[in-house]
Design a protein that fits this description.
Blueprint: H1 7-11, H2 19-33, H3 42-58, H4 61-70, H5 96-104, E1 122-128, H6 130-135, E2 137-148, E3 164-165, E4 174-181, E5 184-191, E6 200-201, E7 214-225, E8 234-237, E9 253-259, E10 266-268, E11 271-279, H7 280-285, E12 287-293, E13 296-302, E14 311-314, E15 331-338, H8 345-358, H9 364-371
Parallel strand pairs: 1-9, 11-15
Antiparallel strand pairs: 2-7, 3-6, 4-5, 8-9, 10-11, 12-13, 14-15
Helix pairs in contact: 2-3
Amino acid sequence: MAEKRDYYEVLGVDKTAGEEEIKHAFRKLAKKYHPDLNPGDKDAEAKFKEVNEAYSVLSDPDKKAKYDQFGHAGVDPNFGAGSGGFGGGGFADFDLSDLFGSFFGGGFAGGRRNGPQRGRDVEAAIALTFEEAIFGCEKTVEIGRVESCGDCKGSGAAAGTQAETCSVCHGTGRVVRQQRSVFGMTQVQTACDACRGTGKIIKTPCKTCGGKGRLRRQRKITFKVPAGIDNDQVITLSGEGDAGVNGGGSGDLNILIRVKPHPVFKRDGSDLHIEVPVTFAQAALGAELTVPVPSGKVKYSIPEGTQNGDVFRLRGKGVRKRGSVAATGDEYVHIKVVVPKNLNKKQKELVRQMADGIGEDNHPERGAFKSKFKDIFK
């Protein structure tokens, strides 16, 4: 089996990274390797799983603390099994977090399992067309999430029964005992073996969830995409993530948005840019152009003498600003003067006559250029 990479290396963050930096790195990589955006790509699928595994540890304060102390051995019960590592041998009989909690006070975050715990956030990604993003739409995303068991209402006990308070720890989920450690005999506080730290004993487990009180299910979630949303932005649906434990609230569903490029429009925030080709005659004499805009098309007149690369602004013809009812950006029209190709003999002669008739006086930029290199253009 290949050796696992360092989780911080997988997400591309330092070990000092905070919660938001870790979440941001995860979202970026989840978008890059998400199976929906890389259909059939086995390498991307493997990397997506690796990114999810790293985030599942580094986003959990308890697991992250153990990982920082012991690496993969601290979060994988099978790591090093049979070789004297943390999965087997001298340390196998006690909880590492309990041991260090007894020395440094309080243990690791999340050590109590019988208190209310908020459910984890769920991440998903969805691709939108350019039009869906700027006008808004309704979409459906399929996710896997942990839900409370409907048969036992999350208690884990079969219908008609209920969990009983553990007689060993009296409902605290923790017991104090003497254990041998690397420091000698030590009095440590550990999770209660009788109830596995929950403080409750379920004598008749629910058959549906096996006494866990929670099940993983696939769900289709329909949501509204607001007009003006942009690439890499996130829609958060409160309470649509994993169910909480012991009365804790549900996590959120964070949907990363990926907008497909448009063949004509280029977007910059709420502004749009479009390149419009015009003939030499249109640029020289001025013309009325038909310009595409998100809502259809508009007429716009360019003045005579328009140059290649000139930019004109169509006010209010851009994208609606996210969260606003009326405010919109602008559309910028970039002029591209197209030089005709494959002229026949007669057409070439007409162009020469036109050039002779126009002369140098009507090309001030050319004259200014030549004046800067007088020694060359003698």
